[in-house]
Amino acid sequence: MKVALLPAASDNATFSNETGDSNTTVFNTTVESDISMSNDTVYSSRTDASFNRISIPAIAFRNISDNKTGVIFSSYATDILFPLRLNQSQNDTYKAIGSNVLSGTVAGENIQGLKQPINISMSIIVSNWSNPVCVSYNFSEGDGNWSTSGCIVLSVDEENEVVVCGCSHLTNFGVLVDINARDSPPKDNKPLRIFSIVGSVLSMVGLFFSIITLLCFKKIRQKESSKFHVQLCIAIFCMFFFFLVGIDRTESEVGCTICSLFIQYFTMASVALMGAEAVLMFHRLIIVFGRIHFFIISIIAWILPAPFIVIGLATLGSGHNYLISEGNFCFISHIGVFFGLFLGPVLAIVCFNTVIFVIVLRVLIKHYLRKIDDIDNKKKVFGTFKTFLSVVSIMFMFGLQWLFGAFTIAQASEAFQWLFVIFSTLQGVFLFLYFCVLAQDAREHWLNLLTLGRRKLQKRSHIVSFQPQPQRSKA
């Protein structure tokens, strides 16, 4: 029988086959081996912090008639995809998943009710733990929760901090432990949290001055791109506002839910506004005929996130579904809703914008090369090209942000967490630099305003002083 091991995203985990067969070929992403149906199948993953192992008995393959099948073994460095839904006690201990989450699947088979248990060895990766309980994740229990059904503790090696579980089914496994909160509080990356707050405040200041710049100066205000950019700045400003005032207000379920909804709405609205600008640019440069008014397309961008908010609220209701992990902060904790109604649509719009920008870039280059000898047309195309680059730069920043966000969820790597926080919390700073510092017209307006127009007068007098004087003819 052919068994294929497909590693999933993990914290630098390496996977190995331990069946003892000699005919084994190792690839970058797949381990394949020929084993007989009478052998147990053993797979393990190793990271710098843990060693995990699943041993599947041969009886698990008794109903497989084909001579080959696929076995998928995954190791998740974080339990963020598998939230623990408990009302935690107010004493010195709290419950948490103290191991990596291990997952095993046999292609096309529902492995359950085994008389010979599946052995799962899992390293404990938290400190000051006690009372380990073997659990598996049950997606059919309400919104999904950890369950002790079908799993027992076979042994506990406290010296090496390894728990061996025996389970009658194959799914997602973990070890639920009690943690002494007084001696070892939940892991909190304090520098990351401080940087998030400071970066958010700086971004709000930058966004405030960006909005002032885009609204107060007539020459800038009349540009159609500025009308989109000011809406973008307002949406991001509101997102940061609700992030700062309510992201950690977990004591109120209603308040936490409201904060989560506003953050979700303004985040999706900001991405939708960039999508609207991409559509308008595509219509003006590619379709040409007809007219889409920026006001209509802006309204669509502001309304677009609403159905996702309503569907999510109707599906989840309020309360613990908007509390992440052990209640550390407020946002969507249901993994299906998070991907389906938030991250999925955001990444879809980013991909859509990327396709539009590639098409527009191709047209601009073609027009520029065609009009290379016509100075006026050349300047016009070059001006459009500069506008295009400004939109792409902003979109590139946002695209990287959510790409790092997706990697953060998949791998829980601290490097990706830092990259996500940097690109997220410094959005306003980047926009301020782009709209106010790097833009020449904005700089000129601010310099004239700060010098009370003296700079403009000095420039004019300088021009007048160098005007040539008419020569008098000699008598």
UniProtKB/TrEMBL annotation:
The G-protein coupled receptors family 2 profile domain covers 192-439
Recorded source organism is Geodia barretti (Barrett's horny sponge)
Know the name of this protein? Adhesion G protein-coupled receptor E1
Q: What residues does the GAIN-B domain cover?
A: 27-183
Q: Where are the transmembrane segments?
A: 194-216, 228-247, 262-282, 294-317, 337-364, 385-404, 416-439
Q: What is its main location?
A: membrane
Q: Which CDD domains match?
A: 7tmB2_Adhesion
An annotated GO BP: cell surface receptor signaling pathway
UniProt cross-references to InterPro entries, sorted A to Z: GAIN_B, GAIN_dom_sf, GPCR_2-like_7TM, GPCR_2_secretin-like, GPS
